[in-house]
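BUG: 3D viewer hangs when loading the predicted structure for this chain

Environment: internal workstation, default settings.
Expected: structure renders.
Actual: progress bar stalls at 90%.

Input used:
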Amino acid sequence: RYTADGSWEATGVSTDSPAGAPQQGTLASDGESLYLFGGMISSAAGAVADYPSYIFRVDPATGEAVPVGMLSAPRICPQVSYRDGAFVVSGGASVYGSVQGGGMAGADLVRWVSTGDGGLTMSASPLDFSTITDQTGQVAYASGAVADGFLIAGAPNDAGTEDTYRLSTDDLSLTAYGR
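C-alpha coordinates produced before the viewer hung:
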Protein backbone atom coordinates (compact mmCIF):
# COMPACT_ATOMS: atom_id res chain seq x y z
CA ARG A 1 0.00 0.00 0.00
CA TYR A 2 1.00 3.62 -0.51
CA THR A 3 1.53 5.38 2.81
CA ALA A 4 0.95 9.00 3.85
CA ASP A 5 4.70 9.65 3.87
CA GLY A 6 4.92 8.77 0.17
CA SER A 7 6.43 5.31 0.42
CA TRP A 8 5.21 1.86 -0.54
CA GLU A 9 4.97 -0.97 1.97
CA ALA A 10 3.99 -4.61 1.58
CA THR A 11 0.74 -5.54 3.28
CA GLY A 12 0.96 -9.30 2.84
CA VAL A 13 -2.19 -11.06 1.67
CA SER A 14 -2.97 -14.59 2.81
CA THR A 15 -5.73 -17.11 2.48
CA ASP A 16 -6.40 -20.43 4.14
CA SER A 17 -5.49 -22.16 0.86
CA PRO A 18 -2.85 -24.84 1.54
CA ALA A 19 -1.07 -23.65 -1.62
CA GLY A 20 -0.30 -20.17 -0.30
CA ALA A 21 -1.11 -16.55 -0.95
CA PRO A 22 -2.68 -15.26 -4.16
CA GLN A 23 -0.45 -13.14 -6.39
CA GLN A 24 -0.61 -11.32 -9.73
CA GLY A 25 -4.33 -10.67 -9.42
CA THR A 26 -5.90 -7.24 -9.77
CA LEU A 27 -7.17 -5.18 -6.85
CA ALA A 28 -10.39 -3.18 -7.22
CA SER A 29 -12.82 -1.59 -4.81
CA ASP A 30 -16.55 -0.91 -4.73
CA GLY A 31 -16.00 1.95 -2.27
CA GLU A 32 -16.62 -0.28 0.74
CA SER A 33 -14.45 -3.37 0.30
CA LEU A 34 -11.26 -4.29 -1.52
CA TYR A 35 -11.31 -7.28 -3.90
CA LEU A 36 -8.62 -9.31 -5.65
CA PHE A 37 -9.63 -10.71 -9.04
CA GLY A 38 -7.82 -13.72 -10.53
CA GLY A 39 -4.08 -14.21 -10.34
CA MET A 40 -2.29 -17.37 -9.35
CA ILE A 41 -1.22 -19.14 -6.17
CA SER A 42 2.32 -20.45 -5.72
CA SER A 43 3.37 -23.30 -3.49
CA ALA A 44 5.92 -22.91 -0.72
CA ALA A 45 8.52 -24.24 -3.18
CA GLY A 46 7.75 -21.38 -5.58
CA ALA A 47 6.04 -23.48 -8.26
CA VAL A 48 2.60 -22.37 -9.42
CA ALA A 49 0.09 -24.48 -7.54
CA ASP A 50 -3.19 -23.04 -8.80
CA TYR A 51 -4.51 -20.66 -11.47
CA PRO A 52 -7.54 -19.48 -9.60
CA SER A 53 -10.66 -18.04 -11.05
CA TYR A 54 -11.27 -16.78 -7.53
CA ILE A 55 -12.53 -13.43 -6.43
CA PHE A 56 -11.25 -12.63 -2.94
CA ARG A 57 -12.41 -9.94 -0.50
CA VAL A 58 -9.21 -8.58 1.04
CA ASP A 59 -8.95 -7.00 4.48
CA PRO A 60 -6.06 -4.51 4.18
CA ALA A 61 -5.66 -4.32 7.96
CA THR A 62 -5.09 -8.06 8.45
CA GLY A 63 -4.10 -9.19 4.94
CA GLU A 64 -6.75 -11.90 5.04
CA ALA A 65 -8.20 -12.86 1.65
CA VAL A 66 -11.57 -14.63 1.73
CA PRO A 67 -13.00 -16.20 -1.46
CA VAL A 68 -16.34 -14.58 -2.36
CA GLY A 69 -16.86 -15.79 -5.93
CA MET A 70 -15.38 -17.13 -9.15
CA LEU A 71 -14.60 -15.70 -12.58
CA SER A 72 -15.68 -17.69 -15.63
CA ALA A 73 -12.01 -18.42 -16.46
CA PRO A 74 -8.61 -18.01 -14.77
CA ARG A 75 -6.99 -14.62 -15.49
CA ILE A 76 -3.58 -13.34 -14.39
CA CYS A 77 -3.46 -9.53 -13.98
CA PRO A 78 -6.87 -8.86 -15.53
CA GLN A 79 -8.22 -5.37 -16.23
CA VAL A 80 -11.08 -4.45 -13.86
CA SER A 81 -13.55 -1.57 -13.87
CA TYR A 82 -16.39 -0.82 -11.43
CA ARG A 83 -19.70 1.05 -11.50
CA ASP A 84 -22.96 0.83 -9.55
CA GLY A 85 -22.48 -2.56 -7.92
CA ALA A 86 -20.93 -4.31 -10.93
CA PHE A 87 -17.39 -5.07 -12.07
CA VAL A 88 -16.26 -5.83 -15.61
CA VAL A 89 -13.23 -8.13 -15.63
CA SER A 90 -11.40 -8.60 -18.93
CA GLY A 91 -8.03 -9.22 -20.52
CA GLY A 92 -5.10 -10.45 -18.53
CA ALA A 93 -3.07 -13.52 -19.36
CA SER A 94 -3.22 -17.19 -18.60
CA VAL A 95 -0.99 -20.21 -18.73
CA TYR A 96 -4.02 -22.44 -18.35
CA GLY A 97 -5.13 -24.79 -21.12
CA SER A 98 -4.59 -23.76 -24.71
CA VAL A 99 -3.89 -20.07 -23.99
CA GLN A 100 -0.26 -20.83 -23.02
CA GLY A 101 0.73 -17.43 -21.66
CA GLY A 102 -1.25 -15.38 -24.15
CA GLY A 103 -3.92 -12.78 -23.61
CA MET A 104 -7.29 -13.87 -22.30
CA ALA A 105 -10.27 -13.35 -24.56
CA GLY A 106 -13.67 -12.10 -23.51
CA ALA A 107 -14.94 -10.43 -20.37
CA ASP A 108 -17.16 -11.10 -17.37
CA LEU A 109 -19.78 -8.93 -15.71
CA VAL A 110 -19.43 -9.64 -11.98
CA ARG A 111 -22.20 -8.85 -9.48
CA TRP A 112 -23.40 -9.95 -6.07
CA VAL A 113 -26.18 -12.55 -6.24
CA SER A 114 -28.18 -14.36 -3.57
CA THR A 115 -27.36 -17.96 -2.77
CA GLY A 116 -29.91 -20.62 -1.92
CA ASP A 117 -29.05 -20.41 1.78
CA GLY A 118 -29.72 -16.66 2.03
CA GLY A 119 -26.09 -15.59 1.64
CA LEU A 120 -24.38 -13.65 -1.13
CA THR A 121 -21.70 -14.59 -3.64
CA MET A 122 -20.06 -12.76 -6.51
CA SER A 123 -21.23 -14.28 -9.77
CA ALA A 124 -19.44 -13.82 -13.11
CA SER A 125 -21.51 -13.78 -16.31
CA PRO A 126 -19.40 -14.12 -19.48
CA LEU A 127 -20.25 -11.54 -22.14
CA ASP A 128 -21.27 -12.83 -25.58
CA PHE A 129 -19.15 -11.04 -28.18
CA SER A 130 -20.42 -13.31 -30.99
CA THR A 131 -23.31 -10.89 -31.54
CA ILE A 132 -20.87 -8.18 -32.70
CA THR A 133 -17.92 -9.99 -34.24
CA ASP A 134 -17.06 -13.37 -35.68
CA GLN A 135 -13.41 -13.01 -34.66
CA THR A 136 -12.23 -15.84 -32.45
CA GLY A 137 -9.07 -16.69 -30.61
CA GLN A 138 -7.33 -14.58 -28.03
CA VAL A 139 -9.23 -11.35 -28.72
CA ALA A 140 -8.68 -9.10 -25.70
CA TYR A 141 -11.13 -6.44 -24.53
CA ALA A 142 -10.72 -3.47 -22.19
CA SER A 143 -13.53 -1.85 -20.25
CA GLY A 144 -14.17 1.47 -18.63
CA ALA A 145 -16.93 2.77 -16.39
CA VAL A 146 -18.77 5.77 -17.80
CA ALA A 147 -21.67 7.91 -16.56
CA ASP A 148 -24.37 5.52 -17.75
CA GLY A 149 -22.67 2.12 -17.58
CA PHE A 150 -19.64 0.53 -19.21
CA LEU A 151 -17.87 0.88 -22.54
CA ILE A 152 -15.86 -2.06 -23.86
CA ALA A 153 -13.22 -1.74 -26.59
CA GLY A 154 -11.63 -4.54 -28.54
CA ALA A 155 -12.24 -6.41 -31.77
CA PRO A 156 -13.90 -4.57 -34.64
CA ASN A 157 -17.42 -5.63 -35.56
CA ASP A 158 -17.96 -7.74 -38.68
CA ALA A 159 -18.49 -4.63 -40.83
CA GLY A 160 -15.21 -3.13 -39.56
CA THR A 161 -16.96 0.11 -38.57
CA GLU A 162 -17.02 -0.19 -34.77
CA ASP A 163 -14.59 -1.40 -32.11
CA THR A 164 -16.17 0.07 -28.98
CA TYR A 165 -19.42 -1.16 -27.48
CA ARG A 166 -21.85 -0.09 -24.76
CA LEU A 167 -22.68 -2.84 -22.27
CA SER A 168 -26.21 -3.12 -20.92
CA THR A 169 -25.89 -4.51 -17.41
CA ASP A 170 -29.62 -5.37 -17.50
CA ASP A 171 -29.52 -7.96 -20.29
CA LEU A 172 -25.72 -8.19 -20.95
CA SER A 173 -26.21 -6.99 -24.52
CA LEU A 174 -23.52 -5.09 -26.41
CA THR A 175 -24.39 -2.31 -28.84
CA ALA A 176 -22.06 -0.39 -31.13
CA TYR A 177 -20.73 2.85 -29.68
CA GLY A 178 -18.17 3.94 -32.26
CA ARG A 179 -14.49 3.96 -32.98
